[in-house]
Amino acid sequence: MEAAEAICAASFPGSNGEVQSVAFGVGDGRHYVAVALPEAQAEGGKLRDNGRVLPSEVFVDPVSRIVVFRVAGPPGQALPMAAKVSVESAAKLQILNGGAGRATGWLKQVNGKMLPLSLLKIDYAASPPPTGTPLLDAGGAVVAIAYQASAAKSGYAIPADVVKRVVEDVQGAGKVSRGWIGVKLLPQTSAPQVTQVQDGSPSALAGIQKGDVLLNVGARPLADYADAVNAFYFLRPGVAAPVKLKRGEKEISVSVTPVERGE
Amino acid sequence: MKPTVEEIGTLLALKRHERPEEGFLDDFLRDFHQRRRAEEALKTGPAGWWHRLSSWASGLGASKWAYGAGLAYAGVAALFLLSPNSVQVQPTPIAPAMYKVEPAEPLKVEQLDALDWRPSSQGTTGEQEF
Prior knowledge:
The complex is a heterodimer.
Chain A: E1 7-14, E2 17-26, E3 31-35, E4 46-49, E5 52-54, E6 56-61, E7 66-71, E8 93-95, E9 100-110, E10 113-124, E11 134-136, E12 142-151, E13 154-159, H1 160-173, E14 179-180, E15 183-185, E16 194-197, H2 202-206, E17 213-217, E18 220-221, H3 225-233, E19 241-247, E20 250-256, E21 259-260
Antiparallel strand pairs in A: 1-2, 1-4, 2-3, 3-7, 4-5, 6-7, 8-9, 8-11, 9-10, 10-13, 11-12, 12-13, 14-21, 15-16, 17-18, 17-19, 19-20
Chain B: H1 5-15, H2 24-44, H3 46-58, H4 64-82, E1 110-111, E2 128-129
């Protein structure tokens, strides 16, 4: 069997026909990443290389709608992933078809709906590329994946660290899991303040208390509730995360080890 | 024509014989006192004031018209300021506060579980657990 190209195509069944996405190889070359838009049935996705369907296992992250295809054949080419994603690092983006773009900021909520993770806002030089298209930095590393167009020359993109988070789960545990630390927050509050700590939860064991204001979760500084939600997305079960918080006038650092979130 | 010394002497001789009628002096004194009282009354009453004002005004000459105009203007202004307001201002009835100050309802923010913000998709509100 021939190794697949770095860029493939994915298709998903949808209510109005097939929903397409670009797919690209990551990591060991046996994993391909695509994006299933909300109208697509992610679990029924197929990976195609030059028209032929590549036999693969399908893993879906229901939060980010990222789909990882694990191919059975020989490893293909993989694109390198950027180590860190920021608006600055995505200030000058190149697209494989020759287009260009630049990140202009973060999208945290849409029409009063808070997103479970923050997306990059991208301005393109021409039309937005198809969903799933990797957006590369000057060094050729993937900084983000095109998600949806928002206007004729702009759109939203999923940051590369979300892709890394999902792929690491799939490569490691063979599934996408979510971490749970047992804190409650109110979306209406401007500061990410803990409103409740579940008894016996990882947060309670780490000493987090009601009223604490979260300053950092993992390596991510938090300015508001949306930042906290975004940071929680990256918590992985069993992987300790440093948490910096403010209690009164004091700043306290603790370590929280999330457990797998039960549904 | 000047009278002669003889004529003056004759006249003086005639005057020496002239005498006022009986009671002339008493009548004269009574009239004198009546006139004096009448003049005093004129000086103290409104008529006296008016009399003196008219005398003062007549002494002013042409400038009395300027004084008159100024006085009339001051009078109209005083009337305007002192006259009671024709608009009846009804005092606002004092009513006890019957309303409660309700705290502003916080903005409704939905937390989405997935990247799906279509109008049909619904998230959850209130406290979120992580």
